[in-house]
Amino acid sequence: MSLDTLDIIVVAAYAVILFAIAQYVSREPKGTSKSTEDYFLAGKSLPWWAIGASLIAANISAEQIIGMSGEGYRIGLAIAAYEWQAAIVLILVAKFFLPIFLKREIYTMPQFLDQRFGTGVKTTMSIYWIALYTLVNLTAVLWLGGLAVETLTGMNIVMAMAGLGIFAIAYSIFGGLKAVALTDIIQVVILIIGGIIIAVMTLNMIGGGSFLNGFERLYTELPDKFDMIFEPGQDGYDTMPGIWTLLGGLWILHLNYWGFNQYIIQRALGAKDLPEAQKGLVFAAALKLIMPLIIVLPGIAAVMLAMPEIGALDKTALDAKTDSTYPAIMSIMPTGLRGLIFAALIAAIVSSLASMVNSISTIFTMDVYKSMIKPGETEKHYVGVGRLVAVLAMIIAVIAAKPFLGGFESAFQTIQEYTGFIAPGVVAVFLMGMFFRRTNSTGAFAALIASVVVSLLFKFGAPDFTFVNRIWVVFLLCMALGILASRLTTPPGEERLIQAGGVSFKTSSMFNASSVLIGAILITLYAVFW
To answer: Considering the domain 5-14+38-411 in this protein, what is its CATH number?
Structure first.
């Protein structure tokens, strides 16, 4: 076992404090019970700092920390594109998408599709999202989290996954989104502190006790690991294809994730008002700038830590399973600090798990159960259904995780590729629905079907065509087909259209200045590490 008594005390203290705070913020005044708005949207009362912190805590999970650290070991800083480009997309979502969503007063993404395209499109996407979040996202976080727990404690990975799932359900099930979002503030603080510690400690090992010397040594001895844009034939070009990483399909994955992903956008839907939601997203964008320091840099450092002259890590084991990189680094941290870093990882895992099951229960309850199975029930009944669905989704994910992801070298890239089968169609449907008035349900279905069919044709007919480029080409085809199908069929009714005249896209001077600053920082980072 790699965790000593002090480490276990640190982790246990974190768990007790988190659970206690979650129960405190979940309580209701005597004689009242939670409504669906309270449970699924935190009563539309979330402030900007809770929204921003919760977005990062929900996003930075085992998939990112373990998966991206493993990719940092394999290909280097280029994987940080997933973090840095997300900052720009968050600003775009805040500026152009949130005003529409909040004006329509929606709970869920399928609800927006119902208003714009009708029940058929809504039901199709509800089923898709429930399946994706349960069988891909939840399983990935559980599997990678279980892998870390197994590495550090020797616990059986299935038992580790079950323990993580039970803890996530226990602290979030009664309070819903409010409990998740407010405790995420603690989670993200622990996550950032723990991540910075592990980055500093690994570079100190390389630099003889100096962080700056360690970074300089990494940068000079492993220059290829600091390339953001790969050349053809360079290691990593297969998954991060050079300039197309910056110009191509990665933007579609980001728009799908940050703009139309229920368990992410749900925080903004729970804001007090639009300006508060927009401030929350720009705060999250700022936090995104430092995430590669926490996530990717330790993975790059592991390359040198595994070299014979240092020999702190087992290179053979890391080469065989890059997802084991972060757990291996954690295992060589000093006692006490190891416990804090482990608590940070657990914070990231359970926050994402809680977010996902809350979104699964929201979509199922509001878009399937309430509208199609049992309309007209009490608010208390629907909240109860939501809690039951959260538990069932977690059980299914624990059972499915090992068979689904156990054989893959990199769960992070595997998840991106699976998501890429449908993401082009989802983004096309939402963009057409918001900004192309002529789009109807026929066009929406055409785009969604084409996304899966054409992606599969590329996958098996042109396997060497990188998935980042494939996503971009499929997106353009989905847009063209959706517009064509809409043009050739009956226009949508006036009640289906987005009335842009009632939507304001104006943002505050603080939002605009922050956005320009974030953009300038990103341009500088790409210029330095090109």
So the answer is: 1.20.1730.10
